[in-house]
Amino acid sequence: MSWTADEMMTIAAARRLHDGLSCFVGIGLPSTAANLARRTHAPGLTLIYESGTIGAKPDHLPLSIGDGILAETADTVVSVPEIFNYWLQPGRIDVGFLGAAQIDRFGNINTTAIGDYADPKVRLPGAGGAPEIAASCGEVIVIVRQSRRAFVDRVDFVTSVGFGRAAGDRARLGLRGHGPRTVITDLGILEPDPGTEELRLTHLHPGTTLAQAQEATAWPLTAAPTLQRTEPPTPDELQALRALT
Amino acid sequence: MAQVVPLADAVAEVVHDGDSVALEGFTHLIPFAAAHEIIRQGRGGLTLIRMTPDLVYDQMIGMGCARKLVFSWGGNPGVGSLHRFRDAVQSRSLEIEEHSHAGMANAYVAGASGLPFAVLRGYRGTDLPGVTATIKPITCPFTGEELTAVPAITPDAGIVHAQRADRRGNVQLWGITGVQKEVVLASRRSLVTVEEIVDTLTPVPGAVVLPSWAVDYVSPAPGGSHPSYTQGYSVRDNAFYSAWDAISRDQSTFLSWMRDNVLSQAAGTPPPPAARAPEAPGNHA
Question: Between chains, do B74 and A126 touch, taking CB under 8 Å as contact?
């Protein structure tokens, strides 16, 4: 079976969600990957949407974070203040799963504005739940297509903090989660360097090259010494993904 | 005690030019019928408050109702941009006060609680405190930890949609309850639009009940959450959310749609038929 780069990206993201974890899910690519994981290797994955639906088990992909199918299939539905205060803020949720318009070499995310905030070139939707998801989940997985426009040296606006400006910034800011441990793209996977916390390439998807990933990154992207090749999608994974979308 | 009155009368009582107005409903129970009535009554200079402006504020902004917007996520969920909102911000014709969801949810809780501000573990390290004056650091007096404070949201008018009310104006809502309770309790004047008025509110698991004495006005507005939805009464019209992208992209197409579908309609006119869900529990004759 052949596959697209987007399918490889979604499948690679789904594989990172282990069975039994709780996952705070953003809409779009994160929701697709999280639902794929739940239908394949992680049936015990708890999906949590910011609308207050805990343990949602949708039989089709929701268009919004508040579609009726999420409330109808949830273990419980709580208010929006409760989902943020009781569930997210104390660090009860293992994985936060986010998208991004811009992401920088330290994993900081911009979903607010391209250009100057007061006079933006492009106004984006804004923060939503992301700043506190990025701060408080045990770890964060980011899924975003790789391009020079999206992978910038420094984001125009820090909507959600990754590793700040230098190693140790998260601790200095009092952020309790471990931050963006994994950034999954249509070309490969980036993870923070254990020393500097700068994102570097740890996996290339089948058919992609380091040069291609570097070309699609606006900072001088380096590869980890252990650079690996992502396992191609299995027919089961592809079938489950196509049935979902 | 809440007064049960027609929608046009309730909106005229609750929303005045220059007011701060919160129409809430987190994807579910968005009070579109009330918004359309505000537009028809020609209200202007409003400070619109809402976590997710959604199509409802895209319409009000495009029709010139708003001076300022307080919000935390301004997109068309799963579809893309809100074009009237985006154009207004990019042309700098709309003042904005921008938060995160956690910040706004807590600000509503403070408003409902009669407190001047809320404390949360949020915003730290982001650029939001630098652009939003209503986000400030605060030191815990017990531990010395640095946290974040946001002032209470106390709108002049708070408007939500709900499944149903009884004849005395007690309101019942269920499904995704969002910040519905908080916005009603935080507001100086409140209006709840409902799918139907019933004799008795049969209990529903997980339901929120707003007692009549905590609500100012209740108005029947069947289908009044379309194109969002009312669990037990309708399903989200995702096709309309997708179609809105093309309708709203251009101001003139937008205006002609609003003329044909909002301005020329009478208050309480049912929206275009959406898929109907099974009847609400407890309402079988």
Answer: yes
**What was the pLDDT predicted at B279?**
45
pLDDT tens per residue across span A122-156:
999 999 999 999 999 999 999 999 999 999 999 99
Q: Give the closest residue to B230 by CA, choosing from B216, B220, B244.
A: B220
Q: Both tokens of residue A26?
A: 């953003």
B129 prior amide bond cis, ω within 30: no
DSSP 3-state of A141: strand
Count of CA atoms in the C-beta half-sphere (13 A) of B177: 21
Residue B168 near residue B1 (C-beta atoms within 8 A): yes
What secondary structure does DSSP assign to B130-169, as a single string? Answer: HH-TT-EEEE-TTT--EEEEEEPP--SEEEEEEEEEETT-
d(CA B78, CA A245) in angstroms, rounded, equals: 13
Interface of B with A in 69-128 (CB under 8 A): 71-75, 77-79, 81-82, 85-86, 89-90, 92, 98-102, 105-106, 108-109, 120-128
β-pairing, A223-229 with B3-4?
unpaired
Q: Spell out which residues of chain A touch residue B27, defining contact as CB-CB under 8 Å.
A: 51, 64-67
pLDDT digits (tens, 9 = 90+) for B22-76: 999 999 999 999 999 999 999 999 999 999 999 999 999 999 999 999 999 999 9
Instruction: Among A79, A80, A174, select the one facing B101 at the smallest CB separation.
Output: A80
A130/B100 CB distance under 8 A: yes
Residue of B71, B77, B124 lying closest to A175 (CB–CB): B124
Other residues' Cβ atoms within 10 Å of the Cβ of residue A28? 16
Of A81, A174, A175, Cβ closest to residue B182: A81
A5-244 has which CATH code? 3.40.1080.10
Burial of B229 (0-12, 13-18, 19+ CB in 10 A): buried
Q: Do B98 and A112 touch (CB under 8 A)?
A: yes
pLDDT at B217 over 80: yes
Interface predicted TM-score (ipTM): 0.96
Nearest Cα residue in chain A from B174? A77
CB contact under 8 A, A81 and B99: no
Inter-chain contact B181–A79, Cβ cutoff 8 Å? Answer: yes
Whether B214 shows a pLDDT value over 80: the answer reads yes
Domain boundaries, chain A: 5-244
Please tell me the distance from the alpha carbon of residue B23 to that of residue A116, in angstroms, as a whole number.
Answer: 29
Q: Tokens 């993201």, residue?
A: A13
Residues of A assigned a catalytic role? 50
Residues 6+ apart with CB under 8 A from B236: A63, A64, A66, A67, A68, B27, B28, B227, B228, B229
Measure the CA–CA gap between A238 and A245, rounded to whole angstroms. Answer: 11
